C-alpha cells in the first residue's frame, strides 16, 4: 500500500518531467553511478557537468571536493549509489541513445523508484520481525502508523534520493537478521555483518547499529545463540562481509585522494560538548517531535518494553540515546533544513518495537481505550499527511520556520506576504546555530 501511494504521488506530481528530482544532496549521493557507467570519471566527477547543468542548473559541482592532485572526491559516501545502481542499469538499458545521459526522465523515474522500493522493503522487514512477537492486527496498525504518520513518508514520496530511506531499509533488515541469528539461523550473522558494512558506507554514524546485534537478547528468541556460542568461522565470515563495503569506500578514497581514510566534510564536524538535542527534537525549525509527533509516542512507549522485555528496553534506550546525542552534536544540527528532523528517520525501525508493544497492550483493553488510541493515531497521521503536502507547496519553509509562523499557517495551503514576515530572518537563524 505504501509503495502504491508513493508511486501515485510520483506520477501525479510529474516532477520527473521537469527534471526536478535529482537535485541537491540527492544529486551528490547519486553522481557516482553515472560517473562509473557512463562518463568513466570516478576520479573527477565533472564529465557529467553539462548534463547535470541542463537538469539541475547550479548543482553541476555540488558535493565535490577538489584535491591538490588534480582529482576530485565526492563529499558523500557510496552506500546510496550502490543501492541505486540496479535501478540505474534498468533505466540505462531502456533509455534511447539521445536520453542516455544519466539524468533524463528515465533516470529520474528510476531514481525515485529506488527510494520507494528500498523504503517499502524496510517496512516489509519490520513487519516480518514484528510478526514473530505480535498478531497480524498489531503489526498492521504499527506499519500503518510508521508509513503514513512519520517523515519516512515525506522522504520517500516527495523528495526521494536522500540517504535516510536507504538507512531505514538497512536498519529494518539489521533488526530482522539480528533476531534471526539469535534464533539460530546460519545466515543471520553473516548478513548482519554485510548490513553493518552497508550502513557505515551509507551514513558513517550508523556504526552505532553495531549495538543492535551485540545486545539483541537471545532469551527473547527461540534459541540460545550468543557471540560466545557462535563458531569462529561464522564470526570471521561476518567480519569479512562487513569489511567488503568498507573496503569499497576506502579504495575509492585512496584512488581519488591518495588516503585510505579521507574526511570529505571539510569544516563540518561534531561538537560533542554542545549537543543541540533540545532544538533537534522540539524546535519549530525542524524539531522531530514538533513535525512528527507520533515519534514522541513511540519514544514514550519504550518503558513498556522494560515491563515485558527488559533487555529489548535497554537496547532501544541505549541505541536511541546514543544516536540522538551524536546526530544533534553535528554542528549544523538542523542538517540544512527539511521536513522534520531527517536523520531521525533512520531510527524508525528500532522504534517500531516499542510502538508495537503499545498497540498490543492497548488492544487488550476495553473498546473505549482502543478507540482513544486509534483516534489519536488517525489525527496524527492526518496531520503528517497534510503538513507534508504543505511542505511540498512551500507553505512550510525548509529552513526558516518559527513558532509564530508555524501557528499562523497551521491548516493553510496558501500564504501571504504578511505571513512570510513571521519567518526567521538571517540574524535569527544565526542566533539559533
Explain how this protein is built.
By secondary structure, this protein is mostly helical. The chain has one domain (111-260, 271-431). It contains 22 helices and 2 strands. It has a two-stranded antiparallel sheet. The protein is globular. The model has no long low-confidence stretch (mean pLDDT 89).
List the helices and strands and how they pair.
Layout: H1 2-13, H2 24-30, H3 32-39, H4 49-56, E1 64-66, E2 72-74, H5 79-94, H6 105-130, H7 136-149, H8 152-157, H9 163-182, H10 188-200, H11 211-215, H12 232-257, H13 277-282, H14 288-291, H15 293-300, H16 302-308, H17 310-327, H18 348-363, H19 367-393, H20 403-408, H21 417-420, H22 426-431
Antiparallel strand pairs: 1-2
Could you give a short description of this structure?
Helices cover 61% and strands 1% of the residues.
User: What number is the mean pLDDT?
Assistant: 89
| Unreliable stretches | none
Strand content: under 5%
Based on CA atoms alone, the radius of gyration comes out at: 22 Å
Overall tally of structural domains: 1
Q: Provide the structure class.
A: mainly alpha
State the end-to-end distance: 39 Å
Largest sheet: 2 strands, antiparallel
Overall 3D geometry?
A: globular
N to C succession of SSEs:
HHHHEEHHHHHHHHHHHHHHHHHH
Q: Helicity level, as a percent range?
A: 55-70%
Count of DSSP helices? 22
Walk across the major sheet and give the strand order: 1-2
**DSSP summary, beta strand count:** 2
